[in-house]
Amino acid sequence: MRISERTALLLSTIALVVSTATLVIVVSHVSRPHVEPEDPSDQAPFEGTTWLLESLGPSGNLRPALTTTEVTLTFSDDRRVSGGAGCNSYFGQYASTTDGALSISALGSTKMFCQEPGVMQQEQDFLDALSAAEQYEVTDGLLRITGGGMELVLAAA
Predict the structure, then answer these.
(1) In terms of pLDDT, which residue wins out, 149 or 15?
(2) Measured between alpha carbons, how far is 108 from 22 in angstroms, rounded to an integer?
(3) Which of 19, 70, 96, 123 has the fewest CB atoms below 10 angstroms from its CB?
(4) How far, in Å, CA of 44 to CA of 124, rounded?
(5) pTM surpassing 0.70?
């Protein structure tokens, strides 16, 4: 059976996206310090909340989230994060304190490819920003997560 050049190119592209995403997740997990609250009462009030992505990008140069897909972030009661990144589901762990420190670690995701324009790039930018999270702030019903020069702005779901 012969594979067409177009099929071979598509398969190569998919393999590149999957290997790049895997490398980014592994590197960000290995190089990130883990913020552990000293006292459970210092934990930020995230437990049981879900947020919807409004905008993302380098701090000071945010772009609106795509309206063609929904990106969610859920903080569970057992210090886990999960949600939909636009195309794939993701999961991980978090630690936070009431003074604004936030760390998201052990981040992983499913590895589907989506053809809709911009979705895969937004998803990768979102997951990169989560992996780089260092600080958070909740003001006027918006959650701002910053770190590594990136910023996420999310609204309560």
Answers:
(1) 149
(2) 8
(3) 19
(4) 26
(5) yes
Q: Output the CA torsion sign for 59, 133, 89, 50.
A: negative
Residue 7 DSSP code = H
Closest CA to 57 of 105, 126, 116, 111: 126
Predicted pLDDT of residue 35: 46
For the domain 5-156, what is the CATH code? 2.40.128.270
Length of the chain: 157
Strand spans (E) along 7-118: 49-58, 63-64, 72-75, 80-84, 89-96, 102-109
What residue ranges do the domains of the chain occupy?
5-156
How far is the C-alpha of 144 from the C-alpha of 128, rounded, in Å?
A: 15
- Tell me the C-alpha distance between 63 and 14, whole Å: 26
Query: Angle at the Cα of 79 (from 76 to 85), degrees rounded to 5?
Result: 60
Helix (H) or strand (E) holding 133: none
